[in-house]
Design a protein that fits this description.
Layout: E1 4-6, H1 12-18, E2 32-39, H2 41-67, H3 81-89, E3 98-103, E4 112-117, H4 124-137, H5 149-162, H6 170-173, E5 178-182, H7 188-204, E6 207-210, E7 217-219, E8 222-225, E9 228-230, E10 232-235, H8 239-245, H9 247-258, E11 263-265, H10 270-274, H11 278-285, E12 295-296, E13 305-309, E14 319-321, E15 327-330, E16 340-344, E17 356-363, E18 367-375, E19 384-390
Parallel strand pairs: 2-19, 5-6, 5-10, 10-11
Antiparallel strand pairs: 1-2, 3-4, 3-17, 7-8, 8-9, 12-16, 13-14, 13-16, 14-15, 17-18, 18-19
Length: about 400
């Protein structure tokens, strides 16, 4: 059973002052829970250890995909294959951050990987800032949380220049590169998440600008905004969307990387990690690993399982199936035509009301923070964010 601690919620005016404007769901309920998940120090350490180990395994799986030319198998669009290879083969293409979605980890349940949001992970603002603010506003000790996401990102931005674990040489190596941050127009959550990252990069020492994607210009000589050239570009736009909806841009970005005119974050190779087809590769490379669930490109024989699209978000097109294939939960969604994988089902931890909890562990060079999503059997865009406290 998930143990919860009641807290006084942050008022909307304070949230908006922080820049967190997506605090209320479409049914007029608060997106941020007025409770915290209680985890022990051992449980927090286990989440960190699991994420660190999983990242190393993803790197091995990525190398296996590249060496064996399995791009089609894991669903990499053909017009991004060269860009994925280019970014993988050069150390300058630094993975800024990602989020592991995990089952278990509390009340004695073993931690199991569900997927890795490696390209455009959401819940950054609420994990890094909001759950910390809940502790502060409730008079609780701020260090009673596994959460140094902000600090880890600040250091990892500096590694973009040093390419080393140590960031001490950042100031002497940094040459005044301009760093552009972009999101689409009309999505406050994505815009303010990107502006949070821009703020952290500015604090790290970069010269930064923000520009909506439709205001940014591209040619094979580089990336431009307001007639200025930018050597570094962060975009909260999924690589697969660029490949499918903006094929000309995919080609231009390949030329820009090939000509070493700019570096893009997160790099294109994170699409390999983002693809849920890599879960099958991981199972092949690490069969019966305690952190993994059996995953296949075909329905699993005689097992309760989850059918999920290799690229999909917010639980759309995800189905839970009985061992005989009978549908337990799920519905038609926008990703029904995508390639599917079949992952062994695992029960998510529940509270006394029957709500399910999924852990999200952020990774920025190392595991750096924990948060939870609460919802029904399949988490969707109406799921709530629940902070945590270490006791």
């Amino acid at each position: 059973m998930v143990k919860l601690k009641k807290v006084k919620p942050l008022d909307e005016a304070y949230l908006e002052e922080l820049g967190f404007v997506w605090h209320t769901d479409s049914d007029n309920t608060s997106y941020i829970a007025d409770e915290l998940v209680v985890v022990s120090e051992d449980e927090a350490e286990a989440y960190a250890k699991a994420a660190n180990e999983l990242y190393d395994m993803f790197v091995e799986a990525g190398e296996y995909i590249v060496e064996n030319n399995l791009f089609h198998e894991v669903g990499i669009p053909f017009n991004l294959v060269d860009l994925v290879k280019l970014s993988w083969e050069s150390d300058i293409h630094w993975h800024l951050y990602g989020r592991f979605d995990l089952a278990g980890g509390v009340d004695g349940a073993p931690i199991k990987l569900l997927e890795f949001n490696a390209d455009t992970p959401t819940a950054l603002f609420e994990s890094a800032i909001i759950q910390w603010a809940i502790l502060k506003q409730n008079g609780l000790e701020e260090e009673r949380q596994f959460n140094f996401i902000y600090e880890a990102l600040l250091e990892n931005f500096k590694r973009v220049v040093t390419l080393k674990e140590s960031v001490e040489e950042f100031e002497e190596l940094y040459e005044g590169w301009k760093f552009l941050f972009s999101s689409i127009k009309g999505n406050a959550e994505e815009e303010n998440t990107v502006k949070l990252l821009q703020h952290i990069a500015t604090e790290a020492g970069f010269e930064t600008e923000f520009g909506f994607i439709d205001e940014v210009e591209f040619d094979d000589s580089g990336i431009y905004f307001n007639e200025e050239k930018f050597e570094l570009w962060f975009k909260l736009i999924p690589w697969e969307d660029i490949a499918i909806e903006e094929s000309d841009l995919a080609m231009l970005l390949t030329d820009i990387i090939k000509n070493q005119e700019a570096i893009i974050f997160n790099p294109a190779y994170t699409l390999m990690f983002q693809s849920k087809a890599i879960l099958k590769i991981l199972w092949d490379l690490y069969p019966n690993h305690p952190l993994l669930l059996e995953t296949s490109y075909e329905p699993l024989d005689g097992k309760k399982q989850v059918e999920k699209p290799i690229y999909g978000r917010e639980g759309e097109s995800v189905k839970i199936l009985e061992a005989d294939g009978k549908l337990i939960a799920g519905q038609i969604g926008n990703y029904d035509n995508h390639k599917m994988v079949y992952q062994e089902y695992v029960e998510l931890p529940k509270d006394e009301k029957g709500n399910s909890y999924q852990a999200g562990v952020f990774y920025a060079y190392e595991a750096c923070g924990l948060g939870f999503r609460r919802g029904e059997l399949i988490l969707n865009n109406m799921s709530k964010f629940v902070g945590h406290i270490v006791e």
